[in-house]
Structures are given as structure tokens and as C-alpha cells.
Design brief:
- The protein has about 475 residues and is of the alpha/beta class.
- The chain folds into 2 domains: about 100 residues, no CATH class; about 300 residues, Glycosidases (TIM Barrel).
- It contains 9 helices and 15 strands.
- The strands form 3 sheets. Strands 10-9-8-7-6-15-14-13 form an 8-stranded parallel beta sheet.
- Helix 4 packs parallel to helix 5.
- The longest helix is centred in the middle third of the chain and has 18 residues.
């Protein structure tokens, strides 16, 4: 039993609330020709106990105060111990006995109107107490300081422009080009590893009339070495010199599949980003520089980070505090777990994690960066239609149809285009055919029968 005077305390302050599930979409690499290889798709979604407890606490508070708390100004939470039990903060009605629960979650919720409430739950979130008043003030979570050793950003105007749409492809095959054109997509995305030759891909994309975005990954065993930062920066500068229109700096670096365990922190990413940004802008000021999109996840619990990874919201806050916004034209975002319309902000049958919904995912990703736009480098809807049963880790998408996929992609494109918050949206994906434990083909807009309903829907949405 821990000492009753010791409380592990964490704070999250955000416009749109929540912890998140794990969705990862790191990929294998592509060669310099247009012969495609399968790339990784999103992985299964565990549930986070802190979020489930918060959801229960919020529901109870909504019922008590008769107010909609889908959006709140802020909320904080802690693992707490109560000497007098869970009910020692409220006046009990006559005849009601205090419950002998001494450990659980403590939430302080600030409504949009500025009113604060303290709500407590048991760890299994079955018992809830709404306090008469807030018993203690919230303490802000520590954030990393900006690194004074970072280089000054190269003087270059941010790459601005109207919203554009693209798709992730395995290669520019005739059928892939047909789908891209039918959907009015102007960009293609591919993933490269440091050392692969991208010049042929750039020439091929430009020759076909497309802009090209590279997501560039490297050797995670070396990524903490300053000398490797030089190697990485030199490589991405070469891509920029060759005419790459956009470069995403790494991929899902908040999980240990992509970054060394024990070193996962947004502040540790920024030195690589800074060196890459300056090298790219010196080589080609017109190349769009995008922060590596994170794996949306609340897998790492109340602490926000463990040695194996960080929740994306925690990592985002670390990046912003360490100065990442000075070295990017836009903020990379992944959204691949939706099973409801992107117009919705509630109603997901699983729960109401913010990463379940398009709008809250975007706000979560760019909120700490002020006026920076999002560049959505993966957005997709998984459907098993035409392929059969999904593997267990992806069963959450079993009821999504091809028609819904098409409609929701078009709605997401429309919302992105009109919000002013999104510079670029890349559909995940256009032409993948891999179907096994990693059902990438289920995300593809070119379906198994060769049709592309989403192409028509997207074309009708865009000018």
C-alpha cells in the first residue's frame, strides 16, 4: 500500500478532452521504382482505464447538473487515496452510509462556463462521488523546456496554399493513376528509408502531374546520435533538392516500434526535426516540412509515458514545449480508426475516446501548436466488404461498408477543406492489396473488384 500522503498527479488541459487508444500505422519501405511493397496498417486498439473512469465521471456529472459536457475547458486527473473514503467530500443524505472505498481516480472538470467540479470514481469506475466543492487545486504537469542548443530556424516562409488532397500508393500503376485522377487527388505519398533513392519516384510523380510526399524513416538504433541526425538531414535535403514537394520527418515516434525504448519523449525528437528542417529549407524552400505523425494512443495510461512509449497527447505537448513548431510547416496527423461519420463527435459504439472522432483528433494534434495547420498524412476507413472476416484486432470495423467508407472519406475531405485547419489530407490508402493479420486492403479505395466508389464521392466533394 502506498503512503497516504503520496499522490501521483497528472494534468491534461485541452479544449477537447481525452486519453486515446492505440492506432499505429508504421510502414515497410518502398523501392525507388514503382514496384510496390506492402506497408503497415493500423493496429488494434486497447482501452485505457483512466479514460473509461473519466467517461463515467463525466456522464454522472452531466446527469447531476443537467448540462452537456462533451466539450469542456479543461480537466485534470490523479490516482488518489482518501483517508475518509470516496464520500468524504460530499454531504450524505440522511440514512446513506459512506462507502468504504479509499483508492481511485480524482477528476477536476472545468466547464466551458468556467465552473469547476470534483468527481471521484473507484478504479473500476463503478462507484462515483460528486463532491460538494473542489477539495484542492490542480497542479500543472511538468513540460520539457525548449532546448537552448537547437539551431535557429532557417529563414524561409512557411509553405502556404489552399487545401489539397492525395493518397498513399504502392506505385503509380495505370489503375492507381486512374483512381487518383477520378478522385481529383493532386498528391501521392510513399514511405522511404534513409539511403533509398527517391529521385526516380519524384520524376515519375511529376511526370504524371502529381506532387509527391515522402514519409522518411531511419535507423531507430542510431536516431539518438547527433551524427545520425546529420546523415538523416543530408538525405532529406537530397530529396528536397531533387524536387520532393513534401517530407514527413519520421513516423509514429511515440512508440517503441519506431523510436528506441527509454528515449521516447517529444523533446528528444525535436533536435532531429530541427536539423532536418533547416537542411530541407536550405535545399528547397518550397518543400513542405511535416512533423512525424504520431500513433494515436492512450495505451500508456495515466502517466502519459512509459519506457515503451507515450500517449500521443502527452508527446504532442512535449514536442510543442520543446519548440517543434519552429521547425515545421504543418503538424502531421494520423486518423485510421473511425467507424462513424467524421461529422460526429459522439456516438461511437466503442466509447468516446477523442481519437475515435475526426474533429477531436485534429484538435488534439494541433491544439498545442497555436496557429499551425494539420497535414493529415494518413486518413482511412477500414471495411471488410469483399474480403471476409477481419482479424481479431480489427473487429471494431466489421460493420463498416464500402458505401460508408466512400461517404465518410468525402465528408472528411469536405470538413478539411472548409475548416482552415488542414493544409493536406492523404487518404490511407489507394491501392494496397495485402489482406491477412494486417488488413491493408480493407482501407484501399480501389476495392477487390476494381471499382472505386470513394473516387466518385471525393470528386463530387472537391472543386
Amino acid at each position: 500500500m502506498r503512503n497516504r500522503t503520496t499522490i501521483l498527479y497528472f494534468t491534461i488541459v485541452m479544449i477537447l478532452v481525452g486519453l486515446t487508444p492505440l492506432v499505429a500505422s508504421a510502414g515497410n519501405t518502398l523501392p525507388s521504382s514503382n514496384t510496390g511493397l506492402p506497408q503497415g496498417g493500423p493496429t488494434a486498439t486497447p482501452e485505457d482505464p483512466a479514460w473509461l473512469a473519466f467517461s463515467a465521471a463525466r456522464d454522472a456529472l452531466e446527469e447531476k447538473i443537467k448540462d452537456d459536457l462533451t466539450y469542456v475547458r479543461s480537466w485534470t486527473y490523479e490516482e488518489a487515496e482518501w483517508e475518509g473514503g470516496i464520500d468524504d467530500c460530499r454531504t450524505l443524505p440522511e440514512g446513506e452510509q459512506a462507502r468504504q472505498i479509499f483508492f481511485g481516480w480524482r477528476f477536476v472538470i472545468t466547464t466551458l462556463a468556467g465552473q469547476q467540479y470534483e468527481v471521484r470514481t473507484s478504479f473500476n469506475y463503478k462507484l462515483i462521488a460528486i463532491c460538494d466543492k473542489v477539495t484542492q487545486a490542480a497542479a500543472p504537469a511538468a513540460q520539457p523546456a525548449a532546448n537552448p542548443n537547437l539551431p535557429a530556424p532557417v529563414a524561409a516562409s512557411a509553405v502556404s496554399g489552399a487545401f489539397e488532397l492525395g493518397g498513399q500508393v504502392t506505385g503509380l500503376y495505370p489503375g492507381t493513376r486512374s483512381a487518383l485522377n477520378a478522385a481529383k487527388m493532386k498528391w501521392v505519398k510513399m514511405q522511404l528509408s534513409v539511403g533509398q533513392n527517391g529521385s526516380g519516384l519524384i520524376a515519375e510523380a511529376h511526370g504524371a502531374g502529381y506532387k509527391i510526399l515522402f514519409s522518411v524513416i531511419g535507423d531507430k538504433s542510431q536516431v539518438m546520435n547527433s551524427s545520425y541526425h546529420d546523415t538523416y538531414a543530408s538525405f532529406v535535403a537530397g530529396l528536397a533538392s531533387a524536387g520532393a514537394d513534401g517530407i514527413e520527418i519520421w513516423n509514429e515516434m511515440n512508440i517503441d516500434r519506431e523510436w528506441p525504448a527509454g528515449q521516447i519523449n517529444g523533446a528528444n525528437y525535436v533536435p532531429l526535426l530541427a536539423k532536418a528542417y533547416n537542411a530541407i529549407k536550405a535545399a528547397n524552400p518550397k518543400t513542405l516540412v511535416i512533423t512525424g505523425a504520431l500513433a494515436p494512443t492512450g495505451f500508456f495510461g495515466a502517466a502519459g509515458c512509459t519506457s515503451q512509449g507515450c500517449n500521443d497527447d502527452t508527446y504532442t505537448q512535449q514536442m510543442a514545449a520543446a519548440g517543434a513548431g519552429n521547425y515545421a510547416d504543418c503538424i502531421g496527423v494520423h486518423y485510421n480508426e473511425g467507424i462513424v461519420s467524421p461529422k460526429q463527435s459522439s456516438g461511437d459504439p466503442r466509447d468516446n475516446y477523442p481519437t475515435r472522432y475526426y474533429g477531436t483528433m485534429i484538435s488534439r494534434a494541433i491544439g498545442p501548436f497555436g496557429n499551425k495547420q494539420a497535414c493529415i498524412t494518413e486518413l482511412g476507413y477500414l471495411t471488410p466488404e469483399g474480403y471476409g472476416d477481419l482479424p481479431g484486432g480489427f473487429a471494431w470495423a466489421k460493420d463498416t461498408s464500402i458505401a460508408e467508407q466512400a461517404t465518410w472519406l468525402a465528408e472528411a475531405a469536405s470538413l478539411s477543406a472548409t475548416s482552415g485547419k488542414v493544409r493536406l489530407m492523404i487518404v490511407f490508402n489507394v491501392d494496397f492489396t495485402h489482406w491477412s493479420s494486417d488488413p491493408q486492403a480493407g482501407y484501399a479505395i480501389i476495392r477487390k473488384d476494381g471499382t472505386c466508389p470513394a473516387c466518385t464521392a471525393l470528386a463530387q466533394t472537391l472543386p
